Amino acid sequence: MGDRLNTIFGWVLFSGVVALGLTSISSRIFHADKPESPENPGFLIVANEDGGEADAGPSLATLLATGDAAKGEAVFAKCMACHTIAQGGADGIGPNLYGVLGKPIGQHEPGFAYSSALSDHGGDWTYENVDHWLTSPRAFADGTKMSFAGLSSAEDRANIMLYMLANGGGPELPTPEAEPLPEGDEAATEGEVEAEEATAEKDGEAEEVATEEPV
Question: Looking at the domain covering 60-166, what would its CATH class be?
Answer without folding.
Answer: mainly alpha
